[in-house]
Specification:
PPR repeats: 44-78, 79-113, 114-148, 149-183, 184-218, 219-253, 254-288, 289-323, 324-358, 359-393
Protein name: Pentatricopeptide repeat-containing protein
Family: Belongs to the PPR family. P subfamily.
Largest sheet: none
Organism: Flemingia macrophylla
Keywords: Repeat
CATH architecture of the domain at 1-113: Alpha Horseshoe
Helix content: over 70%
Shape: globular
């Protein structure tokens, strides 16, 4: 096209650039536009709009505004698409104040924006946690003779619910109904999440009836919100009600639903139902994922059913599923607590060979087992190795080590000094736990001495 004479019309070049933008090849689109400009082919307004879009997506806001200035020099007037693209670009870069200022300047010059503009600004405000400002902007929109759409309302309702301001979200929902703006499934999903977050599960479930009355079909995500909360609260009766409603609505449970159910049964120590749910997945055409196996393995380990947990690990390998850090950490913890410390190291080696990095949970389990089995030197060596690997101990890890060093006060202090050198000193809460632990073990002298040492170092006020 570049070498055809006469040159093809600019809209043919724009089609190519537009196609590149759709597949997010922004740098290529910019490069090609430079090539045809260098051949004397003048861009039009559509070309410049494409370039602004590219620069905005790449975060080059200054270049985008330079193109806008070029539009003005060429005698064009920026249209609503260009201005909306610039506002979206600013919002994507977190430059919300500049986006609002740009909007106010344009309005002052007599320009009128549309629903897309205000939806973008409201979304930006909510993502920045400025929900109150988003509500104020919503009130201003009508003054511009623009009717906010359901997307704008959904954005604010979702933000309010995530901040536990459910009453305000319900008021906004009522406002939607009064203004005859039809809610969508997203509206109800947000409200359900909000009610669940503040512990009002019955109110969340009741919204299913409201959806039915408004001919809105709940999605799998809708039901999974309710299943998740009811399971976490151990309310399996309510969970069954939700599952029944799910089946009645013709929505098929997915792997997330099954995983949530298994987790719920383990939380209330119901082993048989958890196993039944896991075994029924394949029968219902759902392939268990790594998360499914992790839930079952962790549950078995906590019940000290180590052999069953190890059988599941072998099944994972047979199915070419890669166990992750969570899988191994659960197994290592279960083995340690079942006093199978000598078998643990094979798992640790396997974990390392598979490229799964040990985390703080893995190390804490190993340290606890070593300390309780009087392998104090190995525990201290492992603890130091953990710090050298850049894994920061938490308060539980510190407590495990100091408990292990009970009666060896000098070593405990030396270890604290070493941690201080590494910049891994525990905080005040950690020391409180450690000292309380010493008092509980009737190591009063050691606890008081440690407290004096900490105060002398200025670690506690």
């Amino acid at each position: 096209m570049l070498y055809v004479r006469p040159s093809p019309p600019i809209f043919q070049f724009n089609i190519i650039l537009g196609s590149l933008v759709k597949i997010q090849h922004y740098p290529t689109a910019i490069s090609l536009s430079k090539q045809f400009e260098s051949k004397g082919i003048a861009p039009d307004l559509a070309t410049l709009n494409i370039l602004i879009n590219c620069f905005c997506h790449l975060g080059h806001i200054n270049f985008a505004f330079s193109v806008c200035a070029k539009i003005l020099k060429m005698g064009y007037h920026p249209n609503i698409i260009i201005l909306n693209t610039l506002i979206k670009g600013l919002c994507l870069r977190g430059q919300l104040s500049k986006a609002l200022h740009f909007h106010d300047d344009a309005v002052a010059q007599g320009f009128r924006f549309n629903q897309v503009t205000y939806g973008t600004l409201v979304n930006g405000l909510c993502k920045m946690g400025e929900t109150k400002a988003a509500l104020e902007l919503l009130k201003k929109i009508e003054g511009y003779s623009i009717k906010p759409d359901v997307v704008t309302y959904n954005t604010i309702i979702d933000s309010l619910c995530k901040n536990n301001l459910v009453a305000d979200a319900c008021n906004l929902y009522s406002e939607m109904i009064v203004k005859k703006i039809s809610p969508s499934v997203i509206t109800f999903n947000s409200l359900m999440y909000g009610f669940c977050a503040i512990g009002q599960l019955k109110e969340a479930i009741a919204l299913l009836n409201d959806m039915k009355m408004k001919n809105i079909n709940p999605t799998i995500y809708t039901f999974n919100i309710l299943v998740d909360v009811s399971c976490k609260e151990g309310k399996m009766k309510e969970t069954k009600i939700v599952i029944a409603a799910m089946v009645k609505a013709g929505v098929k449970p997915d792997v997330v639903t099954y995983n949530t159910l298994m987790n719920g049964y383990w939380l209330i120590n119901e082993v048989k139902p958890a196993k039944h749910v896991f075994n029924s997945m394949a029968q219902n055409g759902i392939t268990p994922d790594v998360g499914s196996y992790n839930i079952m393995i962790d549950g078995f380990c906590k019940k000290k059913m180590i052999d069953e947990a190890m059988n599941l690990l072998e099944k994972m390998k047979c199915k070419n599923m890669n166990p992750d850090t969570v899988t191994y950490s659960s197994l290592i913890d279960g083995m340690c607590k079942s006093r199978r410390i000598y078998y643990v190291w094979d798992l640790v080696d396997e974990m390392h060979d598979r490229g799964q990095p040990a985390n703080i949970i893995t190390y804490s389990s190993l340290l606890d087992a070593l300390c309780k089995n009087c392998h104090l030197d190995r525990a201290i060596a492992l603890f130091r190795n953990m710090i050298d690997r850049g894994i920061k101990p938490n308060k539980y890890t510190y407590t495990i080590i100091v408990d292990g060093l009970s009666g060896l006060f000098d070593k405990a202090l030396a270890l604290l000094s070493k941690m201080e050198e590494k910049g891994c000193m525990p905080n005040a809460i950690t020391f409180e736990i450690i000292i309380s632990s010493l008092f509980e073990k009737d190591e009063n002298d050691m606890a008081e001495k440690l407290l004096r040492e900490i105060i002398a170092r200025g670690l506690l006020q």
